Request: fold
Amino acid sequence: MSDKDELAALKKKVEEQGRELAEIKAAQPKPPPEPFKPQPYEPIDWTARMSMPRSALEAMIAAEPRGFMRDVALRDARAPQSPSTIPSTQQRADVRPVAGDGSGWVAPTPLGPPPGVAQADRLMDAQDRRDRIELAHRIAAHEAAMRAAQKGKG
Reply:
């Protein structure tokens, strides 16, 4: 065999193996699709469109009385910084007693009937007595009528 024949045979063998490889690859199952991966969440910027046009800001500044904003800023800067506006050396005269120990928590109210239940119970008992007396009178009148009807037949 010459080199050309050998080379042609090798090329033919490589082509055949390439076709076989392509057939094998085509016969293999496709890999499963990649699982769903959500995109990273981008938080909403609620203040994105909360701005005023520059012309509106300039109009507000122009309409403001001279030094008003400066006075407001100074007044706020000089305001007391303590939680109470009453200095600790003074005592208020109209202070009400604080429930509990002053911590903000109050002792729980015990469970029981609401006020006025005893009066309502007495009223209902009295009405029940009246209803029973009225029922007894109606039963007695009915029995008397039945006896009278029996005497009239006999």
Notes: The longest helix spans residues 117-153.
